[in-house]
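TASK: fixed-backbone design
INPUT:
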């Protein structure tokens, strides 16, 4: 059952990423008009806490005002700020929030202020720049704990924190005293070093330094580095591209490398040249062969890899169907269902297959005798039903996105003449984007 619910969560995330066109926290906070308004449609912000309005709690935050000398109470007051509507609170909050992050003498208060900033954002660019500059300064500090917290803050800034890349590379990515920091640095680069708009390429410095990190002594760090390089995509620089291909090949052949990392190196190589993703491609064949492994964890990773490659390898749908029906491990069967969700190019075919398979399961369920078999059958039917719904929801969301893109292109007379503006780019974070009222 635990794996079943994990599948549902995973499937929901697929739909979320297909439909999300605005960064976290930037959606309008107004309820829909008309008789169709639902209470659930309106974000539940508060107007007061313990009978006190926002201005009271803002005063409790400021160390300079000397209203509250207790750092624990200042930190507690900070934690309450996101409960108020950020669309209406910037004028009162922004200056004091930045002051708490930059100047409060207590480390805990400063770090909580950073978390709040990355949750609700700022309304103007000057505050944004000062906040990011401070996070970069924290990355340079000697404390591993402080570096980790700064990386978390920068992650939430998205691609607009690209100016932090040199400091992350120098002060965190190759920090020998903490594998956890190196892993966190690689994860942060995955978020801030990627292209912030269509047609752009990911940061070459980040990719170059991550290639070096593919030789990290820690397996978990290498796994994160591989994941990050896959997300950052094909480098624009030809020399960097060649180095990346060679590095993936080297790791794939390394005797000491884990099978999981070898599988994802195959994914990385396929992504660098998706036109070669045919049934005869060496990397595709390797992933396919891993599906027959006697080790559950290896099969599971290979299934996930196919789901990540999605329609690029839709010719492997029969293999996924076979796993759904025949694999002895439930987690692998559920993972295969999850990978089928991503096969957008063959969504109709997959849905038709799942409808028929669900009918077969229901028929088989009537002949089962033991409670264990009945429960497994019931859960598989529910999983297939959920998968069908997720596929339909995903396709609907993708269709709506395409229609919106066409409409935007129609309304934009000179789309090619417009350069990417990171302040308005998708994938940014509220700390960088600001509120809708601010116009950022």
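OUTPUT:
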């Amino acid at each position: 059952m635990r794996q079943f619910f994990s599948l549902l969560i995973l499937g929901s995330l697929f739909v979320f990423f297909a439909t999300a066109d605005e960064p976290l926290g930037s959606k309008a906070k107004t309820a829909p008009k008309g008789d169709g308004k639902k209470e659930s449609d309106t974000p539940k912000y508060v107007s007061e806490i313990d009978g006190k309005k926002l201005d009271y709690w803002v005063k409790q935050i400021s160390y300079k005002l000397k209203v509250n000398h207790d750092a624990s109470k200042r930190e507690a007051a900070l934690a309450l700020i996101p409960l108020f509507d950020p669309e209406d609170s910037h004028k009162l909050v922004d200056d004091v929030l930045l002051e708490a992050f930059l100047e409060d003498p207590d480390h805990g208060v400063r770090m909580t202020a950073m978390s709040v900033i990355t949750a609700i954002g700022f309304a103007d660019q000057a505050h944004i720049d000062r906040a990011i500059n401070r996070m970069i300064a924290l990355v340079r500090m000697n404390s591993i704990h402080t570096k980790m917290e700064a990386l978390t803050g920068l992650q939430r800034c998205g691609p607009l924190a690209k100016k932090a890349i040199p400091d992350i590379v120098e002060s965190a990515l190759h920090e020998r005293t903490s594998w956890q920091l190196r892993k966190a640095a690689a994860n942060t680069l995955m978020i801030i070093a990627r292209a912030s708009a269509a047609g752009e390429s990911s940061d070459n410095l980040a990719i170059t330094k991550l290639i070096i990190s593919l030789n990290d002594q820690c397996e978990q760090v290498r796994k994160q580095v591989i994941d990050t390089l896959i997300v950052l995509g094909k480098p624009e620089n030809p020399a960097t591209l060649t180095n990346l291909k060679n590095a993936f090949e080297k790791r794939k052949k390394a005797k000491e490398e884990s099978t999981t990392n070898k599988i994802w190196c195959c994914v990385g190589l396929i992504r660098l040249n998706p036109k070669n993703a045919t049934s005869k491609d060496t990397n595709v064949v390797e992933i396919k062969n891993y599906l027959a492994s006697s080790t559950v964890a290896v099969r599971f990773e290979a299934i996930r890899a196919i789901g990540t490659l999605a329609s690029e390898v839709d010719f492997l749908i029969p293999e996924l169907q076979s796993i759904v029906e025949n694999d002895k491990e439930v987690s692998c069967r559920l993972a295969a269902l999850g990978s089928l969700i991503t096969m957008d190019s063959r969504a109709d075919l997959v849905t038709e297959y799942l409808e028929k398979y669900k009918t077969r399961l229901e028929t088989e369920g009537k002949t089962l005798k033991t409670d264990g078999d009945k429960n497994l059958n019931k859960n598989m039917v529910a999983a297939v039903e959920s998968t069908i719904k997720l596929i339909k929801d995903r396709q609907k969301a993708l269709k709506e996105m395409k229609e919106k893109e066409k409409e935007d292109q129609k309304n934009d007379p000179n789309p090619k003449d417009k350069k990417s503006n990171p302040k308005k780019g998708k994938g940014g974070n509220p700390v960088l984007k600001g509120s809708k009222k601010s116009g950022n």
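COMMENT: The chain has a mean pLDDT of 85.
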